[in-house]
Design goal:
homodimer; about 375 residues; alpha+beta; Creatine Amidinohydrolase, Chain A, domain 1; Creatine Amidinohydrolase; 2 domains; six-stranded mixed beta sheet; 9 helices; 19 strands; about 35% helix; Creatin/AminoP/Spt16_N (chains A, B); Creatinase_N (chains A, B)
Chain lengths: ~375, ~375
């Protein structure tokens, strides 16, 4: 992986310093991870204007006797700081000493107070804004990243599949959520990609429902949303089931509508498609069925080292999908007091020559009666 | 509780605006929670220069059909925003419209980019730095807060006690950690206060160990660190046990040293004691036993709505403890390759007239052989 990381840093260097005299100081944790791999919490990366990349951070031997892991020859030099020293100040100082004309920092991550302390600590240095340059680099994934997402999705499907084989009636949302998280870890996840949501009965179909002590009952809709984190990469699946016997007519109708909306959005995923086109595809199906106002602000979003990355698939989003961009497609409808349906998948945008969108989360989307 | 919150906001108003003409805009989530109670994620609070407190945020009906919960008469007015609007901009605009001469913002929380957008969005407004005024208010806890911490500690003791009654040999660190978190929730926690750490054998005694697939074996030291979150308040306990048969001599010796260090620090907790005195009390015991370098940068820290609050009990910390400040005392020693011991408690500083430090986490600190 270190060659991959070195390549990413070279691209960032070329962007930040077209004339070869501006160093970049990266502080946002997911961006640091993207550019160097796993790093100590709070570590800050200097991408030097002429090479000499270096990582600055704190290392507590009581916490991690192995120490910073970036000690291979190809990785950046690691500097361990004492006490409360801000690693960003150490990085800026190193850039200044190496002769950088200016230092580009992440103004969307550094706080006002930290930025001011930085300017005061290293006076005479010019500061510019790196902006979201690293986030833009992260938008399109390479095959290593997609492979990690694929494993995350396999783990997620397996954890969900096992739950479906167990007895659900009478168990609480909290317990089901904890069991799913345990199964994710059992199957090799680093941990959950986001807090697992289990929503039954009148809670079903809510996007961000936090599990309660409500128990699963016969006749309920049951919505589960979970995802594994594997090598830092996060995927997402959401499914809605009906509990016991046969579903009621309103349940079948609502499920069919959400399923149709989700399929329409999935089918709209293609290189060159506008973000808002994908969103519109789902919204139109729901609107035609009288559920136009039930959908939240987004139909889906990018995933990667964070669970909510660019792009956002929403009515006002500007931009077009590219190949190798992984996104979720996750419409849902909740009917207050009754419940609802959500169906979430993680897919990778691919051209039709490459077989069209690659579905990572393959658990069936038939309406299962459990 | 709303009277309590109103009182806190009044104190902040008096601090931020001694002349009655500066509004405060609070964006840091734990500070917002302290001043209004549970609020939607990302909500921003305006503490008006002349009253008229108001909360600004986004509300997704698909996520929470009930809507913002702050609708009682005593709470601040809640304004729900559309789209991507920054709630901080709405709060600053409202302050300007209400005639505030200046607006004090949390420069240690707002990013440079967000602060710039704020100044551009509401031109003509004067901005000042609120600094850590709310964090300072949060340092000393009232009896409601301490009551919540007490319940969190009871839940934590109960979860740990149940684990100790079960068979541990052969189970993995990951499974034990997940089981502890499930038990916390079973007993009424909102969730874990921080990621539960279970460390066995050569991992034992590490402060921030993340659970692995290593299984508990006969003769191991087993270190567990966990805590419940209850009504937002977080406590912490850490204990080290020895597995099976009788402990080895080195285990008994190491345990006794860490126990003595922990006791020394606990006994140093008193109103008026310097932060670094408490730290020194533990460090001196460990140094005398030849483990002076094994201790991490802090011996303990404040707890409350966050797990790591002020004060820090460290060699360089400046300040003195006051009554009703809850802190952890958590020294530890890890011997690379062999393992180690950590013992963490949460206590509330009390004067000797009030009975001295109040121990919240009461699980025994005898060396148990399980």
């Amino acid at each position: 992986m270190s060659e991959v990381h070195a390549g990413r840093r070279s691209r960032l260097r070329a962007h930040a310093s077209p004339n070869g005299d501006v160093a970049a100081v990266v502080s946002r944790p997911s961006n640091v991870r993207y550019l160097v791999g796993p790093a100590p919490a709070g570590a800050v990366l200097l991408v030097g204007h002429a090479g000499g990349d270096a990582l600055f951070g704190h290392w507590d031997p009581a916490e991690d006797p192995v120490g910073p892991r970036l000690t291979d020859d190809e990785g950046p030099r690691v500097t361990v700081l004492d006490g409360d020293a801000d690693p960003a100040q150490a990085a800026v100082r190193a850039a200044a000493e190496a002769g950088a004309r200016a230092v580009a920092v992440e103004e969307h991550h550094l706080t006002v107070a930290r930025h001011r302390a930085l300017r005061e600590a290293v006076p005479g240095t010019g500061f510019t804004d790196l902006g979201c340059a690293v986030e833009r680099q992260r938008l399109v994934k390479d095959e290593d990243e997609i492979a990690a997402l694929r494993v995350a999705a396999e783990i997620t499907d397996r954890a969900l599949g096992e739950l479906l084989e167990s007895i659900l009636v009478g168990r609480t949302e909290r317990h089901l959520a904890l069991e799913l998280e345990r199964r994710l870890v059992d199957h090799g996840a680093d941990g959950p990609a986001f807090p697992t949501s289990v929503a039954t009965g009148s809670h079903s179909g809510l996007a961000g429902h936090r599990p309660t002590d409500r128990r699963v009952e016969e006749g309920d809709f049951l919505t589960v949303r979970l995802g594994a984190r594997f090598r830092g990469y996060r995927c997402q699946i959401g499914r809605t089931f009906v509990i016991g016997t046969s579903p009621a007519d309103w349940q079948i109708e609502l499920y069919d509508v959400v399923f149709a909306a989700q399929r329409a959005a999935r089918e709209a995923l293609a290189p060159g498609a506008e973000y808002r086109e994908v969103d519109r595809a789902a919204r139109e199906v729901l609107s035609a069925a009288g559920h136009g106002t039930a959908l939240g602000p987004v139909t889906g979003h990018g995933v990667g080292l964070e669970i909510g990355e660019d792009p956002r698939l929403s009515p006002a989003a500007m931009g077009r999908l590219g190949p190798c961009v992984p996104v979720t497609v996750e419409p849902g409808v909740h009917l207050p007091g009754r419940g609802g349906v959500r169906i979430d998948d993680t897919l990778v945008v691919r051209s039709s020559a490459d077989g069209g969108p690659e579905l990572l989360t393959i658990t069936t989307k038939e309406l299962l009666a459990l």
